[in-house]
Amino acid sequence: MTISNKTPAISSKKEQVRQMFNSIAGSYDFLNHFLSLGIDRRWRRRLVREVKPGAPKRILDVATGTADLALELARLKPEKIVGVDISEKMLQIGEDKVRKRNLHNIIHLQKADSENLPFESNSFDLVTVAFGVRNFENLETGLAELHRVVRDGGTLAVLEFSMPQQFLVRQLYLFYFKQILPFLGRLISGNKSAYIYLPDSVQAFPCGQMFEQLLYKTGFIKVRSHKLHFGIATLYVADC
Predict the structure, then answer these.
(1) Range of the domain at 215
(2) What is the pTM for the complete model shown?
(3) Each residue of 20-49: pLDDT tens digit?
């Protein structure tokens, strides 16, 4: 994977992603909400509503970033939420947000690799990933690791960008992603390559039925998906 022609060779996609998110951490939250017109908040709330009936007590939020989803999941009143990410600077911002909301007794953030999680098997009632699975270096390995740490009877919820199927929506979506978003991303964050990577990674991601099949292949059952806003994003929910 190449993030830009000017980016020096890096050993792995994982390291590229870590460096990229470290570089845009300071503007990440603003850009997320600004470039999505706030719709990303609604998507996270939809995920929380979807998993609420299970009343999870122990939650793992993988690729937690600046902890937006972890903070939203706190509405479920769990005993503990652990958020993990490989970007140190994203986690630092997340820690500040957790402290400001006085949730440090519930939410714990730590650096960890999604494909080699430092937790025992069957540790969590719920595992979530919001806009992070497409960044896994090995998607199948990462999903198998998520399956390992979910207890029997637990749930995985994945929120991820997807490609709209309706022709007009798809064309507008691609125009925005490939023309407008990189320009605004560079203008605000100073890092154009990060916002070139975003549409490229979305197009490369095996969304829809292909992703559902990977979930089944890695051990999950009763996989269901919900298209959000004309298929711009998809919420996948699977049992373990």
Answers:
(1) 13-239
(2) 0.90
(3) 889 888 888 887 787 677 899 999 999 999
